[in-house]
């Protein structure tokens, strides 16, 4: 029997529906359940052919436990080694090299020095930074947000350099991005599962959170294909099995705004019934596919960027 496990925290609607959907398909030799951990010993297999990870970004113990699971043959979705290394600033840097439009972006040192550092730790960093050059490149209005993380935490809209300095003083030891505002006509949040299944969802980030998926954008077939191709390309290079990509259309051009979401919102109350049904069905089918293909060894997905670098 090959087990598919889902590792999760507070969420309930997606994990429960995922388990029920996998089991309802009655695939011989396949069963799904919540991951159960009662000990963690090095080199010991997890007992799961596939694990869907929904929580290790918040629980370091889970992240390192999943690495051991991967080393001992589990197909972990998403790859915990890559997820540990990735961040939103790198994502943007990579997009500039593969031809995907992204907002102009600068990364900023933390406002407060990290613990166990002093001024001498920053011998290579100019003080002050060339703020005028940064502001001239990015422009205002702009957004400031953490270079890693998600959930719309610590995100600021800034209209001037005075506002920037005021708000940056509130960010403590967080490393922040300063990013050009894309004044969009349409906005889409796009699931990508298995590097091949895409669902493009109209999305209005200016609405209250519970209404953001209630947007009336109606892209043409040509625009849907263009956005689908961008979503697939991004995930091909990053190597995520389960991710969302946010695209903002300015003068018809899709800009990738946020595309490092390896545990994206999948709660029925926020994404709506139709989107929820798609993600449950698609993720269940993909997990079964991965479990059936797992015959031991390395079952992780690696992106094109890493594979090309390793090839050199």
Descriptors:
12 strands; 312 residues; globular; four-stranded parallel beta sheet; 3 domains; Rossmann fold; D-amino Acid Aminotransferase, Chain A, domain 1; alpha/beta; four-stranded antiparallel beta sheet; Dna Ligase, domain 1
Cα-atom Rg, whole angstroms? 21 Å
Largest sheet: number of strands, sense, barrel closure: 4 strands, parallel
Helical content, roughly?
25-40%
Tell me the CATH topology of the largest domain.
Rossmann fold
Q: Tell me, rounded to a whole number, the average pLDDT.
A: 96
Silhouette: globular
| Top-tier CATH class of the largest domain | Alpha Beta
Tally the helices.
Answer: 10
Main sheet: strand order: 2-1-3-4
Determine the structural class based on helices, strands and strand pairing.
alpha/beta
Number of β-strand runs: 12
Q: Proportion of β residues?
A: 15-25%
Given as residue ranges, the uncertain stretches (5+ residues, pLDDT < 50) are none
Order of helices and strands: EHEEHEHHEHEEHEEEHEEHHH
How many domains in all? 3
Give the CATH architecture of the largest domain. 3-Layer(aba) Sandwich
Tell me the span between the first and last alpha carbons. Answer: 39 Å
Quaternary organization: single chain
